[in-house]
Every structure is written in structure tokens, then in C-alpha cells.
Task: inverse folding
């Protein structure tokens, strides 16, 4: 494949939100996000050979790759309707891609591990059931590092940039606002607006060095800790932005969820 693929930072919603009835008082709560995810293939424009997915829901001491040939489902959410624990996404794994990813990471100074016993967590299967419903593109999942260091995740993304010229679509799956304590409580609306505005300027900065410098200091941004008391849902963006190289970022989704600003970004 000669066409370079973009990198993505997408929202994956709340648990299995797209596959259950919304709250009666908010019947369209997830509609705009679901429509965005269903339109991802049009945004990308090229069918990938494989997906490399970095989910907010897997952390390990050092970068780890899921090399199961046929991953099962990891229902890592609680208290949802019974039918949501029977959702399936039978996309094959991509263990044959793992040696290439490990070699790229090693060249950048990152030792990595393999996991042959992990299913797809909901940060993977929930959005991909909408974005790639045929479940026919192989998936290799890459973990976050438990230290949650933004600069390290930017560097990991930078190491993986060559995959974009090899037919691999790099997807960071998280949420640009992730404070469950205030999401449904009517607080932090203004803080979410301030952080979303800052994040959009940082992610779409024309100079990649400026972008990386700003994202590495995300915690200093206005509203940062109100939006992310813990940053695991933001760090997939760092990997996607690191893999962007010199390509500019653009905001591809903007919405409000219970008054909180949310965004998604595409690079390239």
C-alpha cells in the first residue's frame, strides 16, 4: 500500500452506550457520537490492512501487544443491561504485525511484551462495532504504560509512524473529557469548555514540535484536571499525535455530552 493512512483519536462513549436504550430524559444522548463513529471509514478513505488500537482500558508496566489470533470479549464494564454482556466483535487478531511493532519500539528505546490471553476491551470493540461493523480487519491492541507519562506516549507514537505507510491505521480510543463524577452532575461545564478549546488548539497546531510540547504539558492547561482527574482516557491521543509526524491535526468531531465539551482528532 502506497497511500499513507492518517492517525485517529476517537471517543468510545460510556460502556456499551450505543447498544442500549438512552436515558428517557436524554433520548439522543449518544446519537452524534455514534454517527461520527459510523462515518470513520469515509474519513479515512482507504481500507486498512490492520488496525493498531490503543485503548484507555489497558495499562501495563511497559508497552504490551495483544497477540491472540482470535481475541474474545472482555466486558470490562459493570451494571449494564444483561444483553450488553453478549455483544460480540469477531475481528481477527493481528499477531503477525507484532514483530514489526516490537522492532519499531525497540529502535526507539522501548522494550515491549506480548500478551496471548487478553480479549478486546470495550475501548476496542464498542467503537469498532460502529466504525468497522464487518469485523473483518485484523486488530493489534497496544497497551498504555502505567506511568501515564505523556511524553513517553508521544515518543511511542513517533516510533510507530512508519506503520502508516504500511497499511496500518493507528487509533487512539479514549474520551477528551473523562470525569465520571461530574459528567452527569452539572458541574465543570465551563472547565470542560476551557480544556476542550485548549486541547483543540494544541492538537491542531501547525508546527508538530509545538503540538508535542503543548500536549506533553497538558496538565497545565485550563480545566485539565477537571476534565481528567486521571489521564488514561487522554493518553491515546498522545500516541496518535506522536505518530502524526509532520502531518497537521484537525478536529473531526465536536459535541456536548451532558453539557461537557468533547472532541475527536485526525492527523493526516
Result:
Amino acid at each position: 500500500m502506497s497511500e499513507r493512512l492518517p492517525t485517529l483519536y476517537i471517543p468510545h462513549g460510556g460502556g456499551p452506550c450505543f447498544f442500549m436504550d438512552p436515558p428517557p430524559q436524554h433520548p439522543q444522548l449518544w446519537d452524534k457520537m455514534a454517527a461520527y463513529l459510523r462515518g470513520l471509514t469515509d474519513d479515512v478513505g482507504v481500507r486498512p490492512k490492520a488496525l493498531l488500537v490503543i485503548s484507555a482500558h489497558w495499562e501495563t508496566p511497559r508497552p504490551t501487544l495483544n497477540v491472540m489470533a482470535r481475541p474474545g470479549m472482555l466486558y470490562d464494564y459493570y451494571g449494564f443491561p444483561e444483553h450488553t454482556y453478549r455483544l460480540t466483535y469477531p475481528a481477527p487478531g493481528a499477531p503477525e504485525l507484532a514483530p514489526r511493532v516490537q522492532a519499531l519500539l525497540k529502535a526507539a528505546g522501548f522494550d515491549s511484551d506480548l500478551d496471548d490471553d487478553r480479549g478486546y476491551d470495550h475501548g476496542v470493540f464498542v467503537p469498532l462495532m460502529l466504525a468497522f461493523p464487518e469485523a473483518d480487519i485484523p486488530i493489534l491492541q497496544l497497551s498504555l504504560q502505567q506511568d501515564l507519562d505523556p511524553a513517553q506516549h508521544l515518543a511511542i507514537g513517533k516510533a510507530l509512524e512508519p506503520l502508516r505507510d504500511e497499511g496500518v491505521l493507528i487509533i487512539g480510543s479514549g474520551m477528551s473529557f473523562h470525569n465520571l463524577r461530574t459528567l452527569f452532575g452539572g458541574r465543570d461545564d465551563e472547565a470542560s469548555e476551557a480544556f476542550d478549546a485548549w486541547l483543540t488548539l494544541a492538537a491542531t497546531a501547525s508546527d508538530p514540535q509545538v503540538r508535542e510540547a503543548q500536549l506533553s504539558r497538558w496538565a497545565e492547561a485550563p480545566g485539565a484536571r477537571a476534565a481528567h482527574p486521571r489521564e488514561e482516557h487522554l493518553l491515546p491521543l498522545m500516541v496518535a499525535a506522536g505518530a502524526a509526524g509532520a502531518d497537521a491535526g484537525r478536529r473531526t468531531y465536536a459535541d456536548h455530552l451532558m453539557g461537557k465539551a468533547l472532541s475527536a482528532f485526525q492527523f493526516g
